[in-house]
Design a protein that fits this description.
It is a single chain. The chain contains ten helices and twelve strands. With 265 residues, the chain is of the alpha/beta class. The strands form two sheets. Strands 2-1-3-5-6-4 form a six-stranded mixed sheet. Strand 11, helix 9 and strand 12 form a beta-alpha-beta unit. Helix 4 packs across helix 5. The radius of gyration is 19 Å and the shape is globular. The two termini are 18 Å apart.
């Protein structure tokens, strides 16, 4: 029996299990199974592998995409470049190799939405998925700014977005310029917002990133990596302001297919 699965925590909502079980059924792969493995502490990963020594591949989700990396024997270029892993392949010799299929999924899903006036982006969150998004934006020369609950060298806080004083006193001026609706006319503005956090995901559908939604305009592109519900509160509020919106379902399908290619190679 060839065993595959998903590690992360919590795993209250999982597209992967249904997706791969359907794939196995459609391709008559009766000796393939896919299981969910809620793993609260990544330090228990070596113990987990000993318990499941017949694993052929794993998907990795929040919060382990970055923290699992030191436990792997090898990293593919996709994972080392991004600094996050969401696919693990176990070779016949037992060695584990980390890959990142989020890059492929996001890039293929996101790029068709871009218009010439979409100049720069806010990335909400700083986890493994955010790293994949940032890699794609760098590849296509799209400037970006991380936003997080806590201020770091790389990330602003949500409060900074509201704070005009921050912009006037040497902060990032593109934030308030973008939300002031000058995106088409100002090269220093941003009008792409990409949510990589779990805010708004089922069952917590009433949560949303703390943004000045009233300043979003039809010039904005708002992309949410969350795929359930189909329209998160973030997307609903952005859509109400006229923004182009998209959820993460297509990205999920694309990255899952890429994971299957990796495991099957």
């Amino acid at each position: 029996m060839k065993k595959f699965g998903l590690i992360g925590f919590p795993l209250t909502v999982s597209f992967s299990k249904d997706y791969f079980e359907n794939k196995f059924a459609c391709e008559n792969l009766n000796d393939h199974i896919y299981e969910l493995f809620p793993l609260t502490d990544i330090s228990k990963f070596p113990e987990f592998l000993k318990k499941h020594s017949n694993l052929c591949g794993l998907n990795v989700t929040i919060p382990h995409k970055k923290t699992v990396m030191p436990y792997l024997d090898e990293l593919d270029e996709s994972a080392s470049n991004v600094g996050a892993v969401n696919v693990i392949k176990f070779k016949k010799n037992g060695r584990s190799v980390g890959y990142n299929s989020d890059v492929f999924g996001f890039e293929q899903s996101f790029l068709p939405l871009l218009n010439p006036h979409h100049r720069s982006a806010l990335i909400l969150g700083t986890g493994g998925a955010a790293m994949a998004v940032a890699f794609v934006l760098r590849k296509h020369n799209i400037p970006y700014q991380f936003v997080s609950r806590q201020k770091t060298e790389k990330a602003l806080t949500y409060q900074d977005i509201y704070n005009d004083r921050h912009s006037r006193e040497g902060g990032n001026p593109r934030i308030n310029k973008g939300f002031a609706g000058q995106a088409r006319n100002d090269d220093d503005s941003f009008n792409i917002i990409i949510n990589t956090t779990p805010l708004g995901m089922t069952p917590n559908v009433d949560t949303t990133p703390d943004l000045p939604y009233e300043k979003i305009t039809s010039d904005f592109l708002c992309y949410d990596l969350v795929y359930t519900p189909k329209e998160t509160l973030f997307l609903k509020k952005s859509k109400a302001q006229g923004a182009v919106i998209k959820n993460g379902l297509e990205m999920l399908h694309l990255q899952a297919e890429r994971a299957w290619e990796i495991w099957s190679d």
